[in-house]
Amino acid sequence: MKVLDNCLNSSTEQTVFELDVYQCGHEKCNPGHSYGYAIRDHYLIHYIVGGCGEYNVGGRKYELSKGDGFLICPSVSTMYKASMKNPWEYFWIGFYGTEAKKILEMANLGPNNVIFHNDDKVIKELLSKMYHTLKDPNCPEIETLGYLYIFLSKLIKQYKFQNKSKHNNANYVEKAINYVKCNYSRDLTIQELADFIGVDRSQLFRLFKLQTNISPQQYIINYRIAKACELIKTTNLSVEEIARSVGFKYPSYFFRIFKRETAMTPLQYKNKTCDNNLRKG
What we know:
By secondary structure, the chain is α+β, with helices and mostly antiparallel strands. Helices cover 49% and strands 21% of the residues.
């Protein structure tokens, strides 16, 4: 185990900077190697570059592997342990300062979110540079600190990108849903819907499943059946007229889909609705 401490001021009243490196290290763990439960008086980030292991905090266990990282917050009891079969290798960086908490929050890291994943090879390179600059007695502290700021900025950029992607995905689905609501009454295809929002069919399917937990085709069916139910309850239109009004070209197909989705035929649904209205009256 290689650990480097940065004890720059041995006096009892050490200056607290906005952000400062406390320690940096690298270790290829032996099978089952563990540390804790214990608390720290500073922030500590481990980044896994190989193998796997587990991180335990707040009654939860996280199984982690290459590309994963975990945060240890001050005064929080934690334990981490290398796998017996494939023990992990990691870098770690300990830091503190008046701005540490705020900077971590910008990367969506804190007591309630202690895990991140980043496959960017630059992350490993930055931690390696931090380790070697801290080891070099001729290297100024500001260089190590600079690498720490770049490392944290990478985590912040990653979070902002992921957050923006989620927002964009939601916008795509919202746009698609609005299009369905305006065009459900005609022969609307999935390809047409994908073309309208500017994605391919497979991406449209993935986005819909992610945001609504159903496929775009099922959403169209659900919306058409809901509209058909409204027409059955509020008009005296025939089944054929209702089918065409909600986008079904063939009444026989509408009849089959309606029964599949509601477990009733259109006539049974109408009779049930009328019975319910009579009871209310």
